[in-house]
Amino acid sequence: MARSSSSGSDKPASGDTGDVRRASTRSTGSVTLGDVAKLAGVSPITVSRVLNRPEMVTADTIEAVRRAIAETGYVPNLLAGGLASSRTKLIAAIIPTLGNAMFIDTIQPLNDCLSAAGYQLMLGLSGFPELCEEDLLKAILSRRPDAIVLTGVNHSAETRQCLLAAKIPVVETWDLTATPIDMLVGFSHEKVGAEVANYLFGKGYRRFAQVCAEDERAQIRRRSFEAALRDKGQSCLSTVCVPTPTTVRMGREGLAQLLAEGHRPEVVFCSSDVLAHGVLAEAQSRGLRVPDDMAVMGFADLDFAAYTFPSLSTVHVDRAAMGRHAGEVLLARLSGRPVDKKMVDIGFSIVARASA
Amino acid sequence: MARSSSSGSDKPASGDTGDVRRASTRSTGSVTLGDVAKLAGVSPITVSRVLNRPEMVTADTIEAVRRAIAETGYVPNLLAGGLASSRTKLIAAIIPTLGNAMFIDTIQPLNDCLSAAGYQLMLGLSGFPELCEEDLLKAILSRRPDAIVLTGVNHSAETRQCLLAAKIPVVETWDLTATPIDMLVGFSHEKVGAEVANYLFGKGYRRFAQVCAEDERAQIRRRSFEAALRDKGQSCLSTVCVPTPTTVRMGREGLAQLLAEGHRPEVVFCSSDVLAHGVLAEAQSRGLRVPDDMAVMGFADLDFAAYTFPSLSTVHVDRAAMGRHAGEVLLARLSGRPVDKKMVDIGFSIVARASA
DNA sequence: ATGAAAGCGCTAACAG
DNA sequence: CTGTTAGCGCTTTCAT
C-alpha cells in the first residue's frame, strides 16, 4: 500500500527489499512525517512545508501531500515540532480557580482569540494560596509555552526569576502595578474600594459592613474601602472574611454572622457578586427589605446575579475585554508587531441599581 | 557571496581542535540537562535519573545534582522528554464550555486527582456544536497526551478513528452507552427524564412544560420525559428550547415566553438548575407562588441555585465523583494496574424540595 | 521550489 | 550505580 501513487501501475512488492519499512528500535507506531512523505513521493521537509508554510510549495505538491495525509490519518507531533523550532503554539494562563465565574469570563475570550490565531491555551490552576505558584509555573514552563498570562501582579522573587529566564512574553491581568514583569492589562482595586466608599457615603449611608473573600485583591479593595471611610470620619462596623473559592452559601452565612454579632448595617459591601447574591438571598429569606432595611453592593457584575436580583448594585468590570486585550497584545508580540500599550487600565464603573 | 558569513575555511574539519565548546547552530539559550550534568560532574542520563527515578541513584549524587539544578535554575524540557519517552504526563479533557458550572464541578476533582499523580490536565473546549470536535481532537492529539477524557458518548466515526489510532486510554463521561470507545463513567439521561416524569405525575401534576437547552444530553432527557408522559396518557404543553451555554437570564425569558404563549403549566421541568434558577426568579418577580401556582424541577443540583432558592427540587448528580472516578480509572490504566470496572453508572437521585 | 544533513533536549537500551 | 550510544519526529540551515 505504501508506495508511490503517482501513476497507476502499482507493482506488488517487486522483489527489491531495499526500503522495507524496518521497525526502528523504538518506534512509537504512529504515522510520521516521513511516512507521509514516502507515500506522497516527496521529502519529509516538503510535507513540513505544506503544513507550516504552504506558500513555499506548488499547488500540485500540496495536493499530493494533502492526499497522503488524509490517507494515512497523520497527526503532526508537536512535541517534535516544538523541540526543533522552539515554538510550541502553546500559551499558558494561570488562574486561581475554575470555580469563579469572574476568571472564566476573562479566559473564554482569551481562548477564542488565541485559538483563532492557531494557538492553544493551557490552563494552570494555582488555587488561591499563592504558596506553590512557583511549582505550578515550573510545571507549565517545562512544556515550553510561547507566552504566559498571569492573574494578579504579586509574584514571588523566584516566580519573577523563572519568568525572566524563560524569556517569553508575559501578560499580567486583573490588577495594576508600576512594575509589571512585561505587559499588563488590569484595573485598580484600590480605586474600586475608595470609589465604592465615596459612592455609599454620598448616598447617605453611615453604618457599613463587609463580607469579603480571603483573596489578595479582595483584601486590597476592602482596605481601601476602610481607608476611604476613615478619611470621612467613618468606619466599618464589621467585616466577615470567608475562604476562597467563595460561594453563594458563604454570602448567606456571612450576613447571618453579621446579624448574629448584633450588627445592623445600613449597607453591606461584598467582595464579589457571588457573596452579594448570598447576602441578598439571606436578606430576602429573613424578610429584610432591600435597600430600605439594608442595602447591598457587590463586585464584578456577574450575569447570574444580575438576572436573579436585578436590583443588585455592583461594580462593573469588563472581564471579557480584559481577556481579549490580553490575547491581542500577546499575539502582536508573538508576531513581531509593535505593541502599542504595554500597560492598560481597563477601568471599572459603579452600577447603581435599586439595591443601594 | 552568501558564504561570506561562514567563519573559518570551507575545508572539511581536517583534524582536531575537537573539544572547543562550539556554539551549536541553533541553541535556545536555556539551561539543559547537559549543563546541569557538567556542573554536577556527572553524565546527562544521571541527571535525568535524579529527576525521574531517584531510587536508581545514590543519595550523594542526588544531592550534587539537586544543587546544580538549583544553581542553574534548570527547568526540564518536557517536549524533549516526551518525544524521547513517548510519555508526556499530559492528560487532555474535552468539555463543551467553561461557562457551565456542571462541567467545572467534574473537571476540578479530575484535575486534583491527576496533578496529585504528577500529571497535567489540558482542557479543550469544544463549544456545544459537536461540529468541529474532530479538529479540536487533532489539535489536542498533536501534543501527544497520555490519555484523554471526553464529555458525552456520541462521537463521529472520524473522531473514534482518531482516538483508536492514538492508542491511548480514553474515558467517556456524562453519559452511558453500550459501545464505549474504552472506559466510561456516566449516568442515564433517559432514566432521568423518565423518573422525573414519574415523580411529577405521582405528585399529581398534570399540566407540564419544559425549558430545555439545545444540548444533546438535555434533549435526551427531554424526549424521555415526554415519552414517559405519553405512557401515562399525558403530554407536555410546551417546551421552550434555549441555546447553549445557558444562563439564568434564559431561564427567566423561558418562563416569560411560556406564559406569553398562554400556557399555565402546573410544573416546569428545566434542563439544568441554571435555567430553573431563572424560572424561579421570573416566577418570583411575577408574584407567582411556588409550588402552589407553579412548581419547578431542575437538574444537576448546583450549589448556587440551592442556596438562592432552597426550595428548588432537582435531580442530584454527583459530578465530583464522576471526575474523581474518571481520574482514578485513568491513573490505574496508565500505571498498569488492572481497571476493575471499565463502565461505571454513577447514577442520580431526585431531590424533592419544597418547589415541587 | 525542493532536498540533505544536522541537530533540538531528552531517555531507552544496553554496557561496564 | 553510572555511562555510552543512538535515536524520538520534526525543523533549521544551506545547497541545488
UniProtKB/TrEMBL annotation, chains A, B:
Top-level taxon in the UniProt lineage: Bacteria
Region (Disordered) residue spans: 1-28
GO MF term list: DNA-binding transcription factor activity; transcription cis-regulatory region binding
PROSITE patterns for this protein: HTH_LACI_1 (PS00356), HTH_LACI_2 (PS50932)
UniProt KW keywords: DNA-binding, Transcription, Transcription regulation
Start and end residues of each HTH lacI-type domain: 31-85
SUPFAM superfamilies: lambda repressor-like DNA-binding domains, Periplasmic binding protein-like I
Database matches in Pfam families: LacI, Peripla_BP_3
InterPro entries the UniProt entry points to: HTH_LacI, LacI/GalR-like_sensor, Lambda_DNA-bd_dom_sf, Peripla_BP_I
SMART domains given in the database record: HTH_LACI (SM00354)
Family annotation (Gene3D superfamilies): 3.40.50.2300, lambda repressor-like DNA-binding domains
Name the UniProt record assigns to this protein: Transcriptional regulator
Organism listed in the record: Telmatospirillum siberiense
